[in-house]
Amino acid sequence: MSQVRVLPGPPFFARVPTNPEDIRLEFLPADINATAAAMLIAATVIGAAISGAMGVGGGIILIAVMANFMPAPAVVPVHGVVQLGSNVFRGTIQRAHIDWRTFIWFLLGSIVGVAVGGSIVVALPADILRAGLGLFILYTVWAPKMRFSSQSRLAAVVVGVASSILTMFFGATGPFVSALLSRRGYTPQRLIGTHSAFMGAQHLLKIIVFGFLGFAFADWVWMIVLMLLASLVGTLIGSFALGHMSAGTFAKILKGILTLLAVNLLAIAFGFYSIT
After folding, report:
1. Buried b vs exposed e over 256-268: b needs ≥16 C-beta within 10 Å?
2. DSSP, residue by residue, 187-226
3. How far apart are CA 86 and CA 8, in angstroms?
4. SS3 state at 240
């Protein structure tokens, strides 16, 4: 009678991780386990839904989660790719409402800002930048409207320059741009469509710069694909919600979200808590 040979080694159940944090998927980066991947995907859906409905807020939520689950050098570049996809999805849905003339001026400013680079930003403490950005958003949202901020082409160029420099450092400067666009008298669809075009172009420029700087996007390709699919789902949910929202309700909610995001930046700047 032949005998069955039992190979040495631990039983099957002993080789199965019992802690979700120990489960790793081979197609994901070595630094990302199953739990981290699930959190990143969930945050992407939620962030894209918020941005799809309000045009702003999702990027900051996503980058805050990414900062807790990803290596610091990968956060801003990967966030840029995911946000590029999110803005393309959102802009495609609202393409008929985009203010292309203002977009051109913003794009010119963004090109200049990216060319200048982040040397000035990197030289300043992060908390000073966060505090300045938070105060600017609060001023823009709550101060009396000025003709300069609502009509001038120069304003679009200046915001393009400033936000493209800041995005290399923070990654999510959507509220900075949205705070000014909200003063131009746009309908909700026009604001979200134009904002998506602005930010999509800016994220594309940022991705190109990080590529030249040597960031290995290929190492993150499957995580990026999963997050882009999640972004599409969230965008569709948010766009559906936008279609059932009045202009007055939209304006009030947007003002509240921008205020909360500004206060959040100030809280981090003054050390109440840290995102890392």
Report:
1. ebbbebbebbbeb
2. -HHHHHHHHHHHHHHHHHHHHHHHHHTT--GGGGHHHHHH
3. 50
4. helix
Q: Flag whether 44 is in a domain.
A: yes
Chain segment 93-127, per-residue pLDDT in tens: 999 999 999 999 999 999 988 877 655 545 567 67
Does some domain include residue 276? Answer: no
Exposed / middle / buried, residue 14 (Cβ in 10 Å: 0-12, 13-18, 19+): exposed
Torsions phi, psi for 5 (to 5 deg): -90, 125
Give the structural domain span for 241. Answer: 33-269
Distance CA 90, CA 201 (A): 13
Quick one: which of 14, 106, 82 has its CA closest to 235? Answer: 82
pTM for the model: 0.72
Asked, for residue 176, whether it belongs to a domain, the answer is yes
Q: Is residue 26 part of a domain?
A: no
8 A C-beta contact, residue 131 and residue 269: yes
Angle at 113 between CA 109 and CA 119, to 5 degrees: 165
